[in-house]
Request: fold
Amino acid sequence: MSTPPLGRRLRVFIAGGTGFVGRELVVRLVRTGHSLSLITRDAGHADDLAPLSSVEVAAGDVYSLDFLRTALAGCDVAINLVGILNEPGFNGAGFHHAHVEFTERLLAAMREAGIGRLLQMSALNADAARGRSHYLITKGQAEERVRSATWLDWTIFRPSVIFGPADGLTQRFAGLLRLTAGLLPLARAATRFAPVYVEDVAEAFARALQGTATKRQTYELCGPEVLTLGQIVRLTAQAAGLPCRIWPLPDVLGRLQAAIMDFVPGKPFSTDNYRSLLSDSVCHDDGLKRLGIVPASFSARVPVWLSAARAGRRATP
Ligand SMILES: NC(=O)c1ccc[n+]([C@@H]2O[C@H](COP(=O)([O-])OP(=O)(O)OC[C@H]3O[C@@H](n4cnc5c(N)ncnc54)[C@H](OP(=O)(O)O)[C@@H]3O)[C@@H](O)[C@H]2O)c1
Reply:
């Protein structure tokens, strides 16, 4: 099994390509001239991607070896972006299924299909032994599965929180602030992040597809600013022109808020999210710099779409 050479147009398999990061990456790779084999559990999730001429979408049981082998056929490289922020249950089985079992199936199918190159999306603080949440433990276990595949040329990415026009961060907080007239009881408001722009994340993946330099390397991906969660919310409010009065919750109330939200449909916040927030999500290694990417800053980029949305609302009669 070999790594694709520099500059060649590739056939790229993508799992998780229908999500926030995936869509950005699909557009980025199509623009470069690569052709894509994209899998999804539901064809409807790829309605707007399927018409792209160089994107082939397969919908079905993404955990089936047969299904994966078929979608992998003829591909040079695979990208795994599959991830969930919350599970339907509470014991970690849902995280294990999406992060670990999916990675195991993908690795098995890749080996059978003779594909020896994988770009794996993980997260900062992922740690199979010491992760603070099911999310972080299972992301760490998936990394372990990838690293222990001796036949594989892997690259692992560990971003901080990712922002962009369709993110679950600024859009969620802007939505919440609108609902609550700006009053926000916030758990773990002092936890620090280095928000990284989705286009920079997509660029990191795109660069890693070329050549062999990123083989068996792990890249932490961070933006240039370190911001507390409270600062992220304030900057979001400012950009969206919304009032903002944050009530930083002491941990005992933060835990209670999470425990209550565990039972709200769709789990907008959860005990597992709360546990992930117990550690700062900041880089110790500048992965973007190693890839030659100058990252965009949260405070400069976010107003671009949030103030445009605000102008749009004002213009609506
Ligand atoms: N967004 C962030 O701030 C952030 C930060 C650090 C790391 N990450 C990681 O980056 C990756 C992409 O994140 P994102 O924000 O783009 O996520 P997203 O928008 O929620 O997309 C998740 C993708 O995973 C697939 N998926 C979801 N649940 C699945 C399951 N149970 N089994 C198989 N496939 C499933 C979905 O595909 P279908 O529904 O079409 O099947 C979708 O394409 C994830 O691995 C995430 O953990 C994200």
Summary: The domain at 11-162+197-222+283-295 is CATH 3.40.50.720 (Rossmann fold).
